[in-house]
Amino acid sequence: MAVLLNGLRLVSSGNLSLHGIKSLQYKSTRILCQLPCKSSYQGRPFSNKNMTVELDNNTGVAVIQMKKPPVNSLSLEFLTEFAINMEKLEMDRECRGVVLTSSNPKIFSAGLDINEMYGKTPEHSGEFWRAVQEMWLKLYGSNMVTIAAINGSSPAGGCLMALACDYRIMADNPKYAIGLNETKLGIVAPFWFKDSMINVIGRRATEHSLQLGLMYSASNALKIGLVDQLVAQDKIMTHALSVMSEWLAIPDHARQITKSMMRKPTLDRLLTNRESDIQNFVNFISKDSIQKSLQLYLEMLKQRKS
Ligand SMILES: CCCCCCCCC/C=C/C(=O)SCCNC(=O)CCNC(=O)[C@H](O)C(C)(C)COP(=O)(O)OP(=O)(O)OC[C@H]1O[C@@H](n2cnc3c(N)ncnc32)[C@H](O)[C@@H]1OP(=O)(O)O
């Protein structure tokens, strides 16, 4: 509940994914900038291996800029760093919203690092999959407003990250594509990837997309509702911050409870089946036929380059 007490606003906080709205904390009431106010910007950057995180104290908005060369593939190290950063922001009373974007001008994220799924031990595969789950749980279950500024292509796990946000803005460039293309690699999008897509574009479009492993151009992604808006590449961050200020105009407690109401069943499904989902992944990815498919796909990626 939000209660005003001597200039302090009591707002709910905590991780929706695990416990619903679990604790109440004090946040000082601030007037948010309508637009990013560069002149008064007080960024506090932290963590800088695979991503930069900058929190603007004036707006309460953090920007996570992924910067893992060459294509922001989601390795175990990347996923671990991402989850830690999300946790830190979630706990930070100053932070109310996150914009997720990429420093690579053409690629938002290439999805899961295929090298993490090829030729690895079952132990490693299990640890990797738990980290993939954790990334999604942190993002899909965040109390903060989350906006994906998709400034490049975003296949598979990259698309999942975008789907886990509250709002998706994509750069209006016909060369960029987004979608869950797993079947094209000979692998299968797990149920919570599927659920994330259903919750955004509906069941029929998801079935079509998943069976065919469809990648959508930016304009087609807009048509099916996979992204909410297209914006010129050079305007994407300004626009994302402007949309963020609209979302932050809603009282946190009301928006958070609503978000939890909408997302909890989907989150609970993975939480309840987390261990069996890891086991399924390990069994599936260890099969010779699946390893062969991944090997061929990796070779195809390398050949395409030459
Ligand atoms: C029952 C259920 C159980 C569970 C069943 C299992 C469920 C698994 C779910 C899987 C989810 C996934 O995300 S699977 C990942 C899916 N991702 C993809 O298919 C993306 C493949 N990549 C691309 O399409 C492109 O690379 C793209 C991202 C658009 C960038 O194109 P560019 O032309 O700019 O760059 P490229 O030259 O292609 O790539 C640059 C280098 O990056 C490498 N690279 C590209 N994508 C990579 C990736 N995902 N992982 C590692 N490395 C990658 C290339 O090999 C090159 O390496 P060098 O040659 O060495 O420089």
Automatic annotation (TrEMBL):
Pathway annotation: Lipid metabolism; fatty acid beta-oxidation
GO cellular component: mitochondrial matrix
Keywords: Acetylation, Fatty acid metabolism, Isomerase, Lipid metabolism, Mitochondrion, Transit peptide
Primary localization: mitochondrion
Compartments where found: Mitochondrion matrix
Signal peptide per UniProt: none
Keyword Cell membrane among UniProt keywords: no
Tagged with keyword Lipid metabolism: yes
Superkingdom as given in the UniProt entry: Eukaryota
Catalytic reaction equation(s): (3Z)-dodecenoyl-CoA = (2E)-dodecenoyl-CoA; (2E)-tetradecenoyl-CoA = (3Z)-tetradecenoyl-CoA; (3Z)-decenoyl-CoA = (2E)-decenoyl-CoA; (3Z)-octenoyl-CoA = (2E)-octenoyl-CoA
Subunit structure: Homotrimer.
Entries under PANTHER family matching the protein: ENOYL-COA DELTA ISOMERASE 1, MITOCHONDRIAL, ENOYL-COA HYDRATASE-RELATED
Family, per entry: Belongs to the enoyl-CoA hydratase/isomerase family.
Protein name: Enoyl-CoA delta isomerase 1, mitochondrial
Native source species: Chiloscyllium punctatum
